[in-house]
Amino acid sequence: MELTKVEMPNGSNTPVRKSARRLRWFKETLHRQADALHTQLGIQYAINDDELRVLFLRWLEAFEAQKPTETDDKADFVDFASGLMLRELIKSKPVTVESLPANADKSNPAYFWPEGYLYVILCLNIRAAVLAQEFDIEKHDYPELDDLGAWWSFKENVEVEDVNDDVNLAIGFFDLFAGVEPNWSVPGSFFARTLLRKRKEPAISMQRSSAIEHPKTILDPPTPPVKAL
Q1: Which of 11, 33, 37, 183 is buried deepest, with most CB atoms within 10 A?
Q2: Based on the structure, what is the number of domains in the chain?
Q3: Phi and psi for 44 in degrees, rounded to 5?
C-alpha cells in the first residue's frame, strides 16, 4: 500500500526534522492529514487541539531525553521518534471519528480503526519526509498497512484499557508498518534498541553470508506480540 500523502506546511525552508518539533507545524500537518484522508476515504474526523498540545509537549520531552549523539544512530532515531509520536497520539486520543461513509468496509484497516490509521499515516509521512531530506532514503510501498491481522493485533495491544496493555508497543508496531524490524522486548527505550541493533548486526551479516552459500537458509521475520484473551 502507498501512503495517503499530505502537503506539509512550508517552514520557511526549515528542514522537516526541525519543523516537526514545533507545535504549530505539527498541528497543521495533522489537520492536513485528516483532510487528505477525508478526501480519499470519506472519513470525517474531529480534532481536539488542546489535547494535541499536551501530547506534543510530552512527545518533545521524551524526544529530547532520548536523542542520540552518535551519527550512526540518527537514522534509526527517526524511526524511534516517529514511534514515540504514535505512542503519544494513542495515549491521548486527540482525534475522534464523526462519520464514516455508508459503504465503509471494516476489512479495510482505514475503516477498521480510523483514528489509529490517521495516526500511523501521519507519523509515516513525517518519517518519510525526514529520511528523504536528511539521508536520501525513499520508500513508497508499505505492505503491512494492508494486513488487517496486524491492525487487529495493534489495536488490541495498545489501546489502554487494563493493566496488561502496554502503549509502548505502539513503537514496535510503528516499526512493523514502516518495514523496520521491531524491538518487542523494550520498545520504549532507544538505548536498548541501539544495543540490540548493534549486537544483531554481526550475526545478521553472518546469516546473510550463510544464506548466500547455502540457499536453503531462511532468515526468520520478527513476530509481533499476541495479546492474551
Answers
A1: 33
A2: 1
A3: -100, 115
pTM score: 0.86
Which residues touch 227 (CB under 8 Å, ≥6 apart)?
A: 153, 156, 157, 164
Q: Which residues pair with 95 in a beta bridge?
A: 47
36-40, 154-158, 213-217: the lowest-pLDDT one: 213-217
Domain-embedded: residue 1: no
CA angle 142, 144, 149 (to 5 degrees): 160
Is 178 inside any structural domain? yes
Q: Considering the domain boundaries, does residue 228 fall inside one?
A: no
Contact 166, 42 (CB under 8 A): no
- For the chain, how long is the longest CA-to-CA vector? 57
